[in-house]
Amino acid sequence: MIYLYVIIAAIIISLIFKQNVWNPLNTQFKWLYMIFIPLILELIAVFGNVGDLAGYITSSAYIILILFCIRNWKIKGFPFITIGATSNTIVILLNGGKMPLSQRTLVLAGLPANTMDPKHVLMTSTTILPFMGDVIPINFLNLHYACSAGDLFVYTGLFLVIYLNTVKKIYKKKAET
């Protein structure tokens, strides 16, 4: 859901500054077909009846996303997405294939304590790299969510991919000598 807010915000700001919001669609992404694989895997992890495999499916989705981002590194915004996805993948893999989630963050985000999904696990004293887990509460615009620092990098990168690529590229002709 936050991704949708990020995309809408980037489009609105692009329109305010009179940028061409269709330009990002003309960006020459490499391996574009690969972006759909993580999306499908995420849907399977959340809505499929996969049990303990959900975290590993999510990890696989992130690894494919990282490969896509590395391949598109030179496109404005992708370095941020790559850093965020890598950060999230590390903490998920180190914690048994699940993203650690702080109980305190659940409360501050306005989420019920039983709002767990197959991709998350509540933090304990044995959680590895807890500061990289979902410790940032988001509670505004009727949006109740817990996210990680890695997520913030991904959101920033997504915003930049859209907004910075709305600027028209102007090529100057070399003066003939």
UniProtKB/TrEMBL annotation:
Transmembrane intervals: 6-22, 29-47, 53-70, 77-96, 143-164
InterPro entries linked: DUF5317
Keywords annotated in UniProt: Membrane, Transmembrane, Transmembrane helix
Pfam family, one: DUF5317
Keyword Disulfide bond: no
Keyword set includes tRNA processing: no
Protein known as: DUF5317 domain-containing protein
Organism of provenance: Mesoaciditoga lauensis
Lineage: Bacteria, Thermotogati, Thermotogota, Thermotogae, Mesoaciditogales
